[in-house]
Design goal:
mainly alpha, 0% strand, globular
């Protein structure tokens, strides 16, 4: 079967234009109001999280081996391809370390004994070196799997199967490395904004949020692609759509679980240093209101809606829930980071403009990658095996009909 493709050039140009306009507005307002460092950090955390969530799901898909993973492989690979763009977003953060992190101020460190004790870890030199290590590992992982995908596209079915087997065998090790580096990266980039506070489950909270956002973008992408590609329309059956909806629901449940677990564990400690984070976010507005929004609109309602098999089998309904999930994760990142970067209320113009601007640039890279490859990896053995079974079942059903009639 010839590889089916579709054009994304227009989407790429529109996304890039939106990105440039958003960044221009965000820089102008952010510099005027003095809020630019926090705006860039929050935008970076969300968009790099989409690439990393895509990387995690790509690894899990290779480990699982189901045909659903082959159908959504292109969107995941496109997210991973956008990782170098997210790396560029980190450059201004390095320059803004003194404005973002209290531990970069010698006077602050001297006045806080606990932070001084952490100074061997929390300092500019090691912060930058660790970031280089994180991105180096993630880009290497991305290169291994994107190279494997290109090799599968070039070769025949037999060699493609061997390549797929190799990628599957490596996935578990790369996933362990991902978990370790994400845990350290979130500690450096956001938890250290309040250097006297700590949480052992903090990295997991961000990891599952990244997985939710990535799965939601996958759903939006495959539904959008199915309207433009007969090949994706054929593969995006109700059963596969339901599988994606089940993943989104399961991730949402786990996201609620780890957030609740962190709150219960920290609050039960009854220690000042570990309660300051939630004391601010649960007892002061607008953070308390956002917390209620995250509980109701981020978990309770999506959980109840996604329990419906009908919703998960309807493209438009599931796409709506996917968009809702992405919005929730944006609010979640803001709720976690904004109070620590000096925000006292709802997002301002600079925050929203930088978020949209970085998102436009990231999305341009995403669409460009998506349009440069076939809609689905036609040589992926998981997809070939599933289609062989489906065709065999159809053939058997057709062959059984005359026998039944003859018996009658």
């Amino acid at each position: 079967m010839a590889a089916a493709t579709f054009a994304t050039g227009r989407a790429t140009v529109v996304a890039l234009a939106i990105g440039v306009l958003g960044l221009a507005l965000g820089l102008a307002v952010g510099l005027t109001q003095g809020v630019l460092p926090g705006s860039i950090l929050m935008g970076f955390v969300f968009w790099v999280g989409l690439s990393l969530g895509g990387l995690a799901l790509l690894l899990i898909g290779h480990m699982a081996g189901g045909s659903w993973a082959a159908v959504i492989r292109r969107p995941l690979e496109a997210m991973v391809s956008a990782l170098p763009v997210a790396l560029l977003f980190f450059i201004p953060i390095v320059l803004l370390i003194p404005q973002l992190y209290p531990w970069a101020d010698a006077a602050y460190v001297e006045a806080h004994e606990l932070v001084a004790w952490k100074a061997g870890y929390l300092n500019t030199t090691w912060y930058v070196l660790r970031a280089v290590l994180y991105f180096g590992v993630w880009v290497l992982t991305a290169w291994v799997y994107l190279r494997g995908a290109r090799e599968q596209d070039r070769v025949g079915v037999g060699p493609a199967g061997r390549i797929g087997y190799r990628l599957k065998n490596q996935a578990a090790a790369w996933l362990v490395v991902y978990v370790l580096t994400i845990t350290l990266a979130t500690t450096d980039w956001t938890m250290s904004l309040t250097p006297e506070w700590w949480s052992g489950i903090y990295g997991v909270v961000f990891m599952i949020g990244q997985a939710i956002a990535a799965m939601a973008l996958v759903i939006l992408t495959v539904v959008w692609t199915a309207d433009r590609s007969a090949r994706m329309d054929e593969l995006l059956t109700e059963k596969r759509l339901q599988d994606l909806g089940n993943f989104l629901m399961a991730f949402t449940m786990f996201w609620a679980y780890v957030n609740a677990s962190q709150l219960i564990i920290q609050w039960s400690n009854n220690v000042v240093e570990t309660n300051t984070f939630f004391n601010l976010r649960l007892n002061q507005e607008p953070w308390a209101g956002m917390g209620i929004y995250l509980l109701v609109a981020g978990f309770a309602l999506p959980f109840l809606v996604l329990f419906s098999r009908w919703v998960k089998r309807k493209r438009g309904a599931l796409a709506f829930m996917a968009g809702w999930a992405i919005l929730t994760q944006i609010v979640h990142v803001y709720w976690y980071v904004a109070p620590a970067v000096g925000r006292a209320g709802l997002p301002g113009v600079a925050d929203l403009a930088i978020l949209v601007g970085l998102g436009g640039v990231w999305s341009a890279a995403y669409f460009r990658s998506l349009g440069s490859r076939s809609v689905v990896p036609e040589h992926d053995p998981r997809l070939l095996a599933a289609e062989h079974v489906a065709h065999g079942a159809h053939h058997d059903a057709g062959a059984a009909t005359p026998e039944v009639r003859h018996a009658g």
